[in-house]
């Protein structure tokens, strides 16, 4: 039996060698985790993508900065009931005409009877508050809960810069404490190289998520900071699951000489890939529900900030746990130590076997005829028959 088809092209055999290996589609390989996706072997590509993401994020943070909410910067927030005819541009024009300068931001929140238009501006004096309130009442005739046109339908809240500074300081402290505790847990939970890879992946998630917020211009609020801490925990959980599988697949691999640490880690990444996708999709579904119901229908702006950062962070975390953390771990392992020596030994053994007994489409022909088969005559050879006896 030969391992070539009639055209001479090689055919991949199954493990027993008795027949061709079954062909799996993309979705089947994804679902079964057969290790068919070269994640680790193509890690230079994923490193390049990660470098691009990090560069864009850092440049955006350095150049554009963040759109800090009023809770961080201080200022005045004006909220007026919205009607179907009102637009944010109309409200902005009335504000600018009344005070002589434009607000920091104007946005529509909610829908239907719960819809409102919120303006955020620098801290307004009492006289300025009266001017803008009068202008908004004359322009849009807002109605209170009883249905009467009233100035009370417009709510104005002031937040001092001191309060904003305290909120910023507490948010940074909370973020720092979380990162430190996470690093301690990772160092205890995993062996050294896995800890380094997980921490690198954690900072990758943090920088890219913050960079997307800066690039798109999402407003950073205390709810967004809370959401950021939440998705960092989710990303850490995803790393734990993937690294557990890597640890299981690579247990005892240094005592064998058939597969390398990188190949076993790649198999683990493939086996957890579908799980990571499923977990992320299931996690995003309630977030989408939060955005639709809480934000568009009920007009709860705080939940929007929480939902946005969670959605962005979960997608980034799922990507990094498989396509960044695992390749980083393999690169660290193969840089020094017993894994590096074992990988070289496996590759050398394969090279030696390949030289002595290459497995190719024509290997069976190179081995010569099987018993009972006639060999083809060589060019220029005499026809087969009895050997002529006589003097030479």
From TrEMBL:
Residues 374-383 have a biased composition (Low complexity). The chain crosses the membrane at residues 45-66, 171-188, 195-216, 222-243, 281-301, 307-330. SUPFAM superfamilies: Multidrug efflux transporter AcrB transmembrane domain. The keyword DNA damage does not apply. It is a multi-pass membrane protein. InterPro entries: SecD/SecF_arch_bac, SecD/SecF_bac, SecD/SecF_CS, SecD_SecF_C, SecD_SecF_C_bact, SecF_bac. Residues 151-334 form the Protein export membrane protein SecD/SecF C-terminal domain. Keywords: Cell membrane, Membrane, Protein transport, Translocation, Transmembrane, Transmembrane helix, Transport. Residues 351-392 are annotated as: Disordered. It is found in: Cell membrane. Part of the Sec protein translocase complex. Interacts with the SecYEG preprotein conducting channel. SecDF uses the proton motive force (PMF) to complete protein translocation after the ATP-dependent function of SecA. HAMAP family: SecF_B. NCBIfam families: 2A0604s01, transloc_SecF. Forms a complex with SecD. Part of the essential Sec protein translocation apparatus which comprises SecA, SecYEG and auxiliary proteins SecDF. Other proteins may also be involved. Belongs to the SecD/SecF family. SecF subfamily. This is Protein-export membrane protein SecF.
